[in-house]
Design goal:
The chain has 19 helices and 29 strands. It is of the alpha+beta class. Helix 4 (165-175) packs antiparallel against helix 5, helix 9 packs across helix 17 and helix 11 (487-504) crosses helix 13. Helices cover 29% and strands 26% of the residues. The strands form 6 sheets. Strands 1, 2, 3, 4, 5, 6, 7, 8, 14, 15, 19, 20, 21 and 22 form a 14-stranded mixed β-sheet that branches. A 4-stranded mixed β-sheet has the order 18-16-17-23, covered by helices on one side. The radius of gyration is 37 Å and the shape is elongated. The protein folds into 3 domains: 9-143, Thrombin, subunit H, CATH 2.40.10.10; 157-231, Baseplate protein-like domains (Phage tail protein beta-alpha-beta fold, 3-Layer(bab) Sandwich); 398-689, no CATH class. Strand 6 (96-104) and strand 7 (113-130) form a beta hairpin. The relative contact order is 0.08.
């Protein structure tokens, strides 16, 4: 009875079949298929105990590309005594079996059999059935991954942060005694935080948790029973031959059904992780199909899907899931179901080429799942998804972030405004932390903003990459209609907020009116480009427009109103320009700022007192009355605006419209040619946080 070898050729997996695809295709295409199901029984050390031929009466195998347990099935045997589930017999719980499907090569004289390994399985749930006319035993089959669902950790296992994931997975299995490792691909992805697996927790749950850290990686046991961990193939090589071709006249193909799911098609996937409670930053990644592709934005518009994963703490995790989900949403929406005669060397994720009878074209598909019976007349069912070979753009804003960091580091986008603030406002940061982070919000949001926090000198400067546009040049020209939107001017504006927060303190800042804070920030770099949109009509500052602006300014001065509209920023800017013209001889804007800094009053009171003490006005109310009476004249006669061309002077406190000797246009208002390379900031300890 005992037989410990398989006669004929043995093909263990699809990779070993690749070099002989043509021969194996011919073998499967024979008009007569003589099939043998062979079962190799192995002990726990993988030594062959027995090779069983001709005793299985039926069975099936299923393969899934989306499950850790990749292979499962069942086998039914004629029940001989040596097959009873007894310790001394072959189908005992400590043994495992390899199942082979063999096909005779009827072209050769001796009809050599080629045996294709269908998988290495553990025996589960044997079921003996005895009747008057038959005796059978049926066993359920699952690959080794299923065994880990029954195994538990005896001791607590801790995986430290920054451990490469492939090392973490190997350590989990090695602790449990696994030695049969196949291909383990080195991963640069790391465990983002300490992971603890408690005593009694499932090994399979641990593997699931580690594999799911990065969604574009897969783990499974191959047909030989070796553990594999590798990056998924989501962009297939167009030049590589498919594993099988169902051609127009294929005798193996029985039926072909195709289904489309248009509502699931996406060409952009955005994944957010969990916010870092210390920094307030949220990791994020975005994956886009190239716009010109069939399902790209140029052809079907933007089709977006957003995921929020509370367990993700790293950008790399978000990027992995974004790429994986985009692959599913862009290439897995056209599915086929194929019924054919079995092809025994196919596996999940293999590429097949199929003649589509509907439009009479060949298309390639990636196999999602396979199932087939083990009888000579049984068929195979394949579900597969259309492959488009689409290219993916990952985190298209990374290049913009690099550009902004370079400009800040080497072109003075922080340090030059800081120098202007010190020279004209008399304020300078004290070295406190300033974290610069980047976000991706909707168009027409806030381009940049500074956030200060009560009780700490820590601040963040957040830059919205969507609204910022793709700046070029040293000033960050965003190709927008107004040069007031140059990036260096936007960031310079925000730097005044950062310096004021630092020098006045958040307790005082929170009680200051917005018109003063925003007006000072606009005055730093000049806002004539914005102002002429607010008060000019057909190239002229009309009485009507000027009166509307004066009324807006008076409302702000009296009641501290603020809606955040563009005209509000213009009004705050106008008020600060008016105040600057009314400062006492020998004094300047620095005098007002220093007085506020040194005041023990609340923010609003300190501001009013400082303005009155350093201008021609005896009270703040007198300022309001004076502006109400003379504001229109000031706008029409004392502010120089160029209605149809760029401003020769932006209206900055440092330009010749105010306290400078020379006009400063949009390019020169922050002269980046004077930057000191490598000098990021003179008043803050700056840290960059990428999303």
């Amino acid at each position: 009875m005992t037989k410990k070898f398989i006669e004929g050729n043995v093909v263990m997996n699809g990779e070993s079949a690749r070099d002989l695809l043509a021969d194996f295709a011919t073998l499967h295409m024979q008009a007569i298929r003589r099939l043998y199901i062979t079962v190799e029984v192995l002990d726990r050390d993988d030594q062959t105990i027995e090779v069983l031929n001709g005793v299985s009466t039926s069975g099936n195998v299923s393969i899934s590309g989306t499950s850790l347990i990749r292979r499962a099935g069942s086998l039914t045997f004629v029940l001989f005594d040596y097959l009873l589930p007894r310790q001394e017999n072959v189908l005992w719980m400590t043994n495992k079996i390899r199942v082979y499907a063999g096909i005779d090569d009827l072209r050769s004289q001796d009809a050599v059999t080629t045996h294709f390994c269908l998988g290495t399985f553990f025996i589960s749930e044997p079921n003996v059935a005895i009747s008057n006319d038959s005796r059978t035993i049926t066993i359920n089959l699952e690959d080794k991954m299923a065994m880990w669902g029954e195994e538990q950790f005896e001791n607590k296992l801790i995986i430290e942060p920054d451990t490469p994931v492939h090392i973490a997975i190997q350590s989990v299995l090695s602790v449990m005694g696994e030695t049969q490792f196949g291909y383990i691909q080195d991963s640069t992805e790391t465990v983002p935080y300490q992971i603890e697996f408690a005593q009694g927790s499932s090994v399979l749950d641990a593997l699931n948790k580690l594999v799911d850290l990065y969604m574009d990686w897969e783990a499974y046991y191959n047909t030989e029973g070796f553990f594999v961990y590798q990056k998924m193939t989501m962009k297939h090589d167009r030049e590589m031959a498919p594993q099988w071709v169902y051609d127009e006249h294929s005798p193996l193909l029985i039926s072909f059904n195709e289904a489309y799911t248009y509502k699931g098609v996406k060409n952009r996937v955005i994944v957010f992780g969990a916010m870092n409670e210390k920094t307030g930053l949220t990791p994020r990644s975005q994956a886009d199909l190239l716009p010109e592709l069939k399902l790209g934005a140029n052809n079907i518009g933007i089709k977006k899907k957003v995921f929020v994963e509370s367990s993700y703490t790293k950008k790399e995790q978000c990027a992995s899931k974004a790429k994986f989900e985009l692959w599913k949403a862009s290439t897995l929406q056209e599915k086929v179901t194929i019924t054919s005669l079995p092809i025994y060397f196919l596996d999940a994720n293999d590429i097949i080429e199929v003649w589509n009878p509907a439009d009479r074209e060949y298309y390639r598909y990636s196999i999602d799942s396979i199932s087939y019976g083990l009888g000579v007349s049984d068929t195979m069912q394949i579900t597969a998804s259309r492959v488009y070979y689409d290219d993916v753009l990952m985190d298209v804003y990374d290049e913009k972030i690099d550009y902004i960091i370079d400009m800040i580091t080497n072109k003075g986008w922080l340090s030059i405004p800081e120098k202007r603030i010190k020279e004209y406002y008399g304020l300078e940061g004290d070295g406190a932390p300033l974290v610069i982070n980047f976000e991706y919000n909707q168009v027409a949001g806030t381009t940049a903003y500074v956030t200060g926090y009560l009780g700490t000198n820590y601040q963040t400067l957040t830059i919205d990459l969507v609204d910022l546009g793709f700046g070029i040049g040293d000033s960050g020209d965003n190709a927008l209609p107004s040069k007031g939107d140059y990036t260096d001017r936007i960031i310079g504006h925000e730097m005044l907020h950062a310096v004021m927060n630092n020098q006045f303190g958040m307790d005082k800042i929170q009680n200051m009116p917005d018109w003063f804070l925003e007006g000072c920030a606009e005055f730093l770099h000049g806002a004539d480009e914005r102002l002429k949109l607010s008060i000019m009509e057909d190239g002229v500052v009309t009485d009507s427009k000027a009166s509307q602006m004066v009324n807006r300014c008076v409302s702000m001065l009296r009641d501290n109103t603020w809606s955040g509209a563009s005209d509000d920023y213009s009004a705050g800017y106008v008020i600060m320009k008016y105040i600057d013209k009314k400062i006492l001889f020998g004094l300047d804007m620095k005098s007002i700022m220093i007085a506020i800094k040194n005041s023990s009053s609340d923010g609003l009171t300190a501001m009013k007192e400082a303005i009155v003490a350093n201008t021609v006005f005896y009270s703040f109310d007198e300022l309001i009355v004076d502006f109400q009476e003379n504001g229109v004249q000031f706008l029409q006669e004392e502010i120089t605006l160029n209605p149809y061309v760029d401003e020769e002077d932006t209206g900055s406190v440092a330009g010749n419209d105010h306290r400078g000797a020379f006009p400063l246009n949009a390019e020169m208002v922050f002269d980046n040619s004077t930057a000191v390379a490598g000098l990021i900031s003179t008043g803050f300890t700056v840290e960059f946080e990428r999303p």
